Amino acid sequence: MLEINTDGKVEELSTYPLDYYGTCPNVGDTIVANYFAEPTFYSVQRRYFVKESPVFSGWALIVREIDPTGPPEELWREWQSATKFWDEVAEQEEKEDRQSSKDRLEALLGRDVAKKPPPPKRKRAPSRAKKGE
């Protein structure tokens, strides 16, 4: 991905393979890149397929930074909110899975103290053997 700077020069931003994007973005598509603390919004201006050699070939995307005010910024906030929600769900499920595994292990080891008290200790029966025999 190459950016057209305000002075018109092209500068490389990233070298991610196409599968990073899922498919080659089309002209007019918007890419939200969170390379730094805040996201940056880019519009795909052009795309070129470069066949340098049989080994080195691929798509070059020419992008321009755009103003995110409006729907792009709202989309980013909503995306972040959904990510936070699903991360919390995954964290809770992982916690429950760990507890369930721990409970099963405790039960297998006979340490299920909370659910079943240990059996009472029995007194030993006196030996029936006679002294001297």
Question: What does it look like?
Answer:
By secondary structure, the protein is an alpha+beta fold. It folds into two domains: 2-67; 69-112. It contains one helix and five strands. The protein has a five-stranded mixed sheet with strand order 2-1-5-4-3, with no helix packed on it. The chain is elongated.
Q: Overall pLDDT, averaged?
A: 84
- Count the DSSP helices: 1
Tell me the number of strands: 5
Oligomeric organization of the protein chains: single chain
In percent terms, what proportion of residues is strand? 15-25%
Q: Over the alpha carbons, how many angstroms does the gyration radius reach?
A: 32 Å
Total number of distinct structural domains: 2
Span from first to last CA? 97 Å
- Quick one: overall form? elongated
What is the H-and-E element order? EEEEEH
Q: Give the class from helix and strand content and strand pairing.
A: alpha+beta
Sheet with the most strands: spatial strand order: 2-1-5-4-3
Tell me the helix content.
Answer: 25-40%
Any key phrases for this structure?
alpha+beta; 1 helix
Secondary structure elements and their pairing?
Elements: E1 2-4, E2 10-12, E3 30-33, E4 40-51, E5 57-65, H1 71-108
Parallel strand pairs: 1-5
Antiparallel strand pairs: 1-2, 3-4, 4-5
